Amino acid sequence: MDLSTLPLDITEWLHPQAWLQLFGTFATIGVLAIIFAETGLLFGCILPGDSLLFTAGILTAVSTINGEEFQPLSLPWLLIGGPIAAIAGAQLGHFLGARYGRKLFDRPDSRIFKREWVEKAEYYFTRFGPAKAVVLARFIPIVRTFLNPLAGMLGMSTRRFFIWNCVGAVVWTDSLFLLGHFLGSEVPGVEHYILPGVAVILVLSVIPIIREVLKGRKADRGPDKNDPEESRPSLSGDSYR
């Protein structure tokens, strides 16, 4: 492959086609590597997530996107390897958070790190509780990167994290792979609708989160809303066990 034809603008690398074009015949391995990095390494927050999985699913049914030829991908390998990569990456993130704690997060803003990303992940962790947060975070860009080490830092046990990590990993990766494959098989010219398709997926994924936020606000209006100790969930205690 001629590397001189690849896009040089960093914003273009947020598009999954650029990565799949770069990986070429090793596209399946490349997709799994990005899944691992996005869920396990802090710099992975800048990598494509939902759009990459959705596009990879489409490429199990078609080989051309917007006039460009791509290496066809294996759906069985993605369905098996995707959850494994997502589980392994998240477990690494949890381990790093438990091991190094605040050192991972107590840093100034930079081009690839923003304090607000950590605060957003912590908000979901406290609002929904560890179990729901680990699953729901899979569908929220950036949050799914930072919530895993945050869970380790805040004391969520490795065993409990692993259980919900597996649930979230399978639902997130395989649902997007299968959706892309189905649309690629059934809808002519679906490759032209990748970005709108990802937008729809994001909207659907935040519906449960909106419901939880509204439920939480109703609970905050209850008789104990002025008691910070009662209204704020324990991050590492037994109230979630």
Describe the structure.
The longest helix has 29 residues, at 158-186. A two-stranded antiparallel sheet has the order 1-2. It starts with 15 loop residues before the first helix and ends in a 10-residue tail after the last helix. The chain has one domain. A hairpin with a 2-residue loop joins strand 1 and strand 2. It has helices at 16-23, 27-40, 50-58, 75-100, 115-128, 130-136, 143-153, 158-186, 194-220, 228-231, and strands spanning 64-65, 68-69. It is mostly helical and 241 residues long. Helix content is 62%, strand content 2%.
- How many domain regions? 1
Strand content: under 5%
What is the percent of helical residues?
55-70%
Mean pLDDT: 76
First-last Cα distance: 52 Å
Task: Using the alpha-carbon principal axes, give the shape.
Answer: globular
Per DSSP, the total helix count is 10
Q: H/E series, N to C?
A: HHHEEHHHHHHH
Could you list the spans in which at least 5 consecutive residues all have pLDDT below 50?
A: 1-10, 227-241
Strand order of the largest sheet: 1-2
Rounded Rg: 19 Å
Number of strands: 2
Question: Structural class given helices, strands, pairing?
Answer: mainly alpha
| Largest pleated sheet | 2 strands, antiparallel
Keywords summarizing the entry:
241 residues; mainly alpha; 2 strands; 62% helix; transmembrane; transmembrane helix; cell membrane
